[in-house]
Amino acid sequence: MVLLQTMTSEEYKKNHTSFKIIYGFHPSPFGNCLLAVTNTDQAVAYLAFVDGNNEEALMDLKNSWPLSELVDDTANETQKIMRKICSPCAFVDDFLTLLLMGTEFQIKVWESLLRIPKASTMTYEQVALSINKPKAVRAVGNAVMKNKIAYLIPCHRVVGKSGSNKYKWGTKRKESIMTYECESP
């Protein structure tokens, strides 16, 4: 089960000193990842695929959480959480908390992505309809691209109306994730 905590940018500015961001680089079934969690409750605050350049990924993490202290912890807590994320039976008997930071609109979009059934897809237009913003298709696409928690917030399940299969981390990876979802319990 996935639990959500949400925070607007304004709330983050007020509360950023109440937690640190612990991060680590780890392998996954879909390539290397950078995982970041809060030190207080181990809520996942960031998960991105990394293709070769760890420094670039780390810079994106710093830009995503600019007011927070970042702590490298590849060998400990983040590794345990990454194992849980990569388990084929992830969250069946356990839960994982996600910390979403964005505008109210972005958070609504990301929450709607969590409702897309595993191994299914929705178009950007369908996502816009699901949040009662039928004319906000482009804004939905923008929010999907700004998702900072890859795989767990399943932006890979969103496709273009014409069937286009774009994905921030590459179409081959998207296809691999969808195949994995279709084959796992």
TrEMBL record:
Its EC number is 2.1.1.63. It catalyses: a 6-O-methyl-2'-deoxyguanosine in DNA + L-cysteinyl-[protein] = S-methyl-L-cysteinyl-[protein] + a 2'-deoxyguanosine in DNA; a 4-O-methyl-thymidine in DNA + L-cysteinyl-[protein] = a thymidine in DNA + S-methyl-L-cysteinyl-[protein]. GO terms for biological process: DNA repair; methylation. This is Methylated-DNA--protein-cysteine methyltransferase. Belongs to the MGMT family. It comes from Dufourea novaeangliae (Sweat bee). Pfam families: DNA_binding_1. GO terms for molecular function: methylated-DNA-[protein]-cysteine S-methyltransferase activity. InterPro entries: MethylDNA_cys_MeTrfase_AS, MethylDNA_cys_MeTrfase_DNA-bd, MethylDNA_cys_MeTrfase_DNAb, MGMT_N_sf, WH-like_DNA-bd_sf. Residues 104-181 form the Methylated-DNA-[protein]-cysteine S-methyltransferase DNA binding domain. The keyword Heme does not apply. Keywords: DNA damage, DNA repair, Methyltransferase, Transferase. PANTHER family: METHYLATED-DNA--PROTEIN-CYSTEINE METHYLTRANSFERASE.
